[in-house]
Amino acid sequence: MLTLLPLSALTFSLCRTSCNNIPINYPFGVDDGCGAPQYCKMLNCSTNLLFITPSDTYKVQGIDYNMKTPTIYDPSMSTCSILQPHHDFVMSEIKSVIIPPAPDTVFTLLNCSRDSSILNHYRSLCFNFSGHSCDELYGSCTSFRLFHLLSNNTPPCCFTGYDTVKYMSMNILDCTHYTMVYNTDGLHDVAPLDWIYGIKLSYSVPDTGCDRCGR
């Protein structure tokens, strides 16, 4: 005897609602046909919940649905405690529009050449980050102290936003390493060892009509 399930029941059974204890709510989905079309296949659920870009796969640390801000971690970036070979952070054109890094995510370019374009022609792209300095960064962090020791001075660094690394690669910027921190508004007088390393993203959905889409 063949039993037919209602379409709604079949749809619900195919859409997972969590991955590794992280809720999967609208507009996201990790299964075919789930979530908003523009966010389709943006996340992948294996052992961990992953955010996929052309440059790498990043572990999702959490999603704040009220603030509409997922946070991800770049396993290839350097931090205060570990130095990694550099690579570029690359997002697809559609991702950079609909889920870009949030304004309070700061990209810190490290060990830059004094001839770097970011320190000369595009100096205006570097900004003051809560009163922090290159000297503080190189002096406080075990991993970054190496740059100071090798050059016998303080190599230039640059605190900048996502648009800088979106349009210029690390080779063009002429900086050997980078790190990223978020929630920067709350990091005044906080030492680099206690910064929150990673990337906060920001997305938007219409204020009305999403409850029905989510259901």
Automatic annotation (TrEMBL):
It holds the Pfam family GUB_WAK_bind. GO terms for molecular function: polysaccharide binding. One of its GO terms (cellular component) is membrane. Residues 1-19 form the signal peptide. Its main location: membrane. It is a single-pass membrane protein. It is found in: Membrane. Residues 15-74 form the Wall-associated receptor kinase galacturonan-binding domain. Keywords: Signal. InterPro entries: WAK_GUB. This is Wall-associated receptor kinase galacturonan-binding domain-containing protein.
